[in-house]
């Protein structure tokens, strides 16, 4: 949960070496078998003295130790696979006389007969049932992941924030850009197509917890841990479309040529070769999984080449809303854009006039801090969620009567509640459930989605009514309004090996978020990049979701 004025992600990475040009040199390291021992009295440094290398002995010893760890891991896996193979072969020898084999055995051993005895058939059936039961979950997860990757593809990464990203939104006017709100006290606007940062808002003195755009004008509304909400204007010009990246060998070489640090370049090349060799070792890599290192742990102030350090910065708000006595966690525009609503940790939501910044109403009733607020796209309705396990519906359609309805059904903090185009509200909670409610019948939900992790700020697509769930466990799942799961977005995998140097370069093989996913936002007007996610790995991601294919497979 956002904190006031603070930075919530990990500490900055260690100081980097000064960038300077050095002559390229080759690296030659002799590998020894992990089962062999060095002759007594001979140190590792003595084994390397006769080799031509400018690396210090201590550095070369560290590299050899790391490679030794990798080799021992693969050797253990190889031995384990051999033992499993022998067990399967022994079972096949017992069953081969009756025409039965266990999956994974050698079909060439034993002559297969047409019939089997009753007792042997029972044993074979029991083995097969146990085998299928133990692997069904794994196989089904493989199939689901493969299908999700085919229907949900990562298109663009938006990297430039120095801390976690709490919220993101897409403008409703031309030019269409992406906005992100971060704990680094800033909000950034991005080109969706190129991933380039176009503008930075730095008017807040605390964490920026949400961002929403005016329905018809180029204005943004941000809520912050400095106990204020700001309304500010922006003007951006979209850059020219970039040509597709060069994925040929020449383009790969150009990537290394552009690197400044020769040590990093040489080590990166070495590690890519190591991963390639390990990946192609027969019979081993199927048992491994990796997790990329957190490359987002940059030094304070360090950004990408197209990051916020080189773009226009807005520091003064058009209007400042100051009535709250605690962190302002969220804010949104009412239909028409003449009023805004804010939600705060002071357990109240405030309604303001945009033109005068005047406080119109204070909405009280929640017993604990508010976590989110959302407005209806076509009606004067507001929904606020809270840590008191409830969310409330506020009706401003009749100026003389401001009714409120309380929705109870969750057992933990309601992290968000959003409207759909119809008469539904979808709520997500830390109790690991998502509930779909009918505004005409508020006693019980019409659908409940149960997950394995806490749910953060959800979003619902306007046209197809698909719910995108961001989770604490780095997952992003898609469901329909009836609770049927449609897909899971790809993410980086978990690493079981020792923390070795391979994790430095393995990030090129994985995709998705590496930390908690905080928010999702749909953009169905864009046919290519139609879903955005953000999280505490300091990046936002644009996805292409093949919605017709998802609905067809349902």
Strand residue percentage? 25-35%
As a whole number of angstroms, the C-alpha radius of gyration is: 28 Å
The whole-number mean of residue pLDDT values reads: 77
Shape: globular
How helix-rich are the residues, as a percent range? 10-25%
Number of helices: 7
Number of strands: 29
Q: What is the structural class? A: alpha+beta
Largest sheet: 5 strands, mixed
Please give the order of strands in the largest beta sheet.
Answer: 2-3-4-5-9
Cα-to-Cα separation, first versus last residue: 34 Å
Low-confidence stretches: 6-38, 101-117, 131-146, 260-264, 281-306, 493-509
Gist?
With 554 residues, the chain is of the alpha+beta class. It has helices at 44-48, 57-95, 118-151, 249-258, 262-279, 502-505, 547-553, and strands at residues 152-159, 165-170, 178-182, 187-190, 197-201, 208-213, 219-224, 229-233, 313-314, 319-321, 328-333, 339-344, 349-353, 359-363, 370-375, 381-386, 390-398, 401-408, 414-419, 424-429, 433-438, 447-450, 459-460, 466-470, 476-480, 485-488, 517-522, 531-535, 539-545.
Describe this structure in words.
InterPro entries: WD40/YVTN_repeat-like_dom_sf, WD40_PAC1, WD40_repeat_CS, WD40_repeat_dom_sf, WD40_rpt. Pfam families: WD40. It is found in: Cytoplasm; Nucleus. The chain has about 550 residues and is an alpha+beta fold. About 20% of the residues lie in helices and about 30% in strands. It has 7 helices and 29 strands. It has helices spanning about 45-50, 55-95, 120-150, 250-260, 260-280, 500-505, 545-554, and strands spanning about 150-160, 165-170, 180, 185-190, 195-200, 210-215, 220-225, 230-235, 315, 320, 330-335, 340-345, 350-355, 360-365, 370-375, 380-385, 390-400, 400-410, 415-420, 425-430, 435-440, 445-450, 460, 465-470, 475-480, 485-490, 515-520, 530-535, 540-545. The strands form 7 sheets. Strands 2-3-4-5-9 form a 5-stranded mixed β-sheet, with no helix packed on it. Strand 27 and strand 28 form a beta hairpin. It is globular, with a radius of gyration of 28 Å. The relative contact order is 0.12. The model is unreliable at about 5-40, about 100-115, about 130-145, about 260-265, about 280-305 and about 495-510 (pLDDT under 50).
